TrEMBL record:
<dbReference type="InterPro" id="IPR008909">
    <property type="entry name" value="DALR_anticod-bd"/>
</dbReference>
<keyword id="KW-0067">ATP-binding</keyword>
<keyword id="KW-0030">Aminoacyl-tRNA synthetase</keyword>
<feature type="domain" description="Arginyl tRNA synthetase N-terminal">
    <location>
        <begin position="4"/>
        <end position="92"/>
    </location>
</feature>
<dbReference type="InterPro" id="IPR005148">
    <property type="entry name" value="Arg-tRNA-synth_N"/>
</dbReference>
<dbReference type="Pfam" id="PF05746">
    <property type="entry name" value="DALR_1"/>
</dbReference>
<keyword id="KW-0547">Nucleotide-binding</keyword>
<protein>
    <recommendedName>
        <fullName>arginine--tRNA ligase</fullName>
        <ecNumber>6.1.1.19</ecNumber>
    </recommendedName>
</protein>
<dbReference type="GO" id="GO:0004814">
    <property type="term" value="F:arginine-tRNA ligase activity"/>
</dbReference>
<dbReference type="Pfam" id="PF03485">
    <property type="entry name" value="Arg_tRNA_synt_N"/>
</dbReference>
<dbReference type="GO" id="GO:0005737">
    <property type="term" value="C:cytoplasm"/>
</dbReference>
<keyword id="KW-0436">Ligase</keyword>
<dbReference type="InterPro" id="IPR001278">
    <property type="entry name" value="Arg-tRNA-ligase"/>
</dbReference>
<feature type="domain" description="DALR anticodon binding">
    <location>
        <begin position="238"/>
        <end position="355"/>
    </location>
</feature>
<dbReference type="GO" id="GO:0005524">
    <property type="term" value="F:ATP binding"/>
</dbReference>
<dbReference type="InterPro" id="IPR036695">
    <property type="entry name" value="Arg-tRNA-synth_N_sf"/>
</dbReference>
<dbReference type="InterPro" id="IPR009080">
    <property type="entry name" value="tRNAsynth_Ia_anticodon-bd"/>
</dbReference>
Length: 355
């Protein structure tokens, strides 16, 4: 069962409780499913009981206790435990990590994307300023990945170099004074702290990262540090982790084996890596909703930080023969590289296979 399938299972449990008259709430459109936090257990956890407590007029833990048996008897669920104020911790029956890795490899760079588009459309309006346009472009990519229809309008004509070098799309429209979709106030305004210097000399990848990595309210740093290939440079760290993961796939092919999702419980660092990969769809949804590509950028750094210590355990050592464990570990590394490539693509940044 994948996190998306588990989310649907949680909502089905809520719907059954509502139909039975034990909860008087509107069934939400989605249930957030993540890896368990501190004090949690199992494969996944959801805060749905806390979300429904106030509208139901019941304490969160009571809501969790109502939902627990309905989740526990669902197909694929092994055990459900309530922890803290009302978190539901869910253990799946066999193969949860393998299912996650399999889903990532099956969906490729579209892992975490959804086709459930919002009604109408979104129009992003930004000032004629380079950072605002790059942030609007990345936000539009994120929104489209979540199924939304998006247009970008600018309070003036963008400079040619912003498109030629930084990849600002040619279809950016000049604001004509009309209202956005749905009437007054429906334009989503993108107005981050302006760039203190021209990012064009950094080139597309480093220039975009310099503008997107800081939160919108933070002043970006525009300097040559973004071009330095060393550990202290977050962009290099992310792209290096991707290149290392791709190199392992090539090295494994030279040794005569390929990836196959399976049990990675014995691999050092696998749990931490699985946690950040499972969180990827939630991060994409939140970054799109809040038009905050910096959240995705920081998440990619977290993925890179988790995958790099894991990689040395992937390939056979010495005279060791490739086994099912090596194939499963390779699949997890390949999945991490896929998530890094997909995330960088949404930021408009290249993910080279070689560095």
């Amino acid at each position: 069962m994948t996190p998306v399938e588990l989310s649907r299972t949680v909502l089905h449990a809520v719907r059954r409780a509502v139909d039975a008259g034990e909860l008087r709430v509107a069934v939400p459109e989605r249930a957030v499913v993540t890896v368990p936090g501190p004090g949690g257990c199992g494969d996944y956890a959801t805060n749905i009981a806390l979300q429904l407590a106030r509208p139901s007029g019941q304490p969160p833990r009571r809501v969790a206790e109502i939902l627990m048996p309905r989740l526990a008897d669902a197909e694929g669920i092994g055990e459900v435990v309530v922890t803290g104020p009302g978190f539901l911790n869910i253990s799946l029956r066999g193969g949860a990590p393998a299912a996650l890795v399999g889903e990532i490899l099956r969906r490729g760079v579209r892992y975490g994307h959804t086709d459930a588009g919002s009604a109408g459309g979104t129009r992003l309006r930004c000032p004629r300023e380079v950072r605002a346009l790059v942030v609007a472009d990345a936000a539009a990519r994120l929104l489209r990945a979540q199924g939304a229809s998006v247009r970008i309008v600018c309070d003036g004509r963008p400079e040619d170099a912003w498109g030629a070098v930084l990849g600002v799309p040619a279809e950016v429209e000049e604001y004509d004074g009309t209202r956005g979709p749905g009437g007054p106030g429906r334009d989503a305004v993108v107005r981050p702290v302006p760039a203190p210097a021209d990012p064009v000399p950094l080139g597309r990848d480093a220039g975009r990262w310099a503008l997107l990595y800081p939160a919108a309210h933070d002043r970006p740093r525009i300097d040559g540090e973004h071009l330095v290939q060393r550990e202290g440079n977050p962009l290099f760290q992310v792209r290096y982790a991707h290149a290392r993961a791709r190199a392992l796939v090539r090295n494994a092919a030279d040794l005569g084996f390929a990836s196959e999702a399976g049990d990675v419980s014995g691999a050092p660092g696998s749990r931490e890596l699985l946690a950040v990969l499972a969180d990827h769809p939630r991060v994409l949804g939140a970054a799109a909703r809040d038009r905050a590509p910096d959240r995705l950028a920081r998440h990619l750094v977290a993925v890179a930080d988790a995958v790099l210590p894991y990689l040395p355990a992937v390939l056979p050592r010495g005279e060791e023969k490739p086994s099912a464990a090596h194939r499963a570990r390779l699949a997890l590394a390949e999945a991490a590289g896929t998530v890094l490539a997909g995330g960088l693509s949404l930021l408009g940044i290249d993910a080279p296979d070689h560095l």
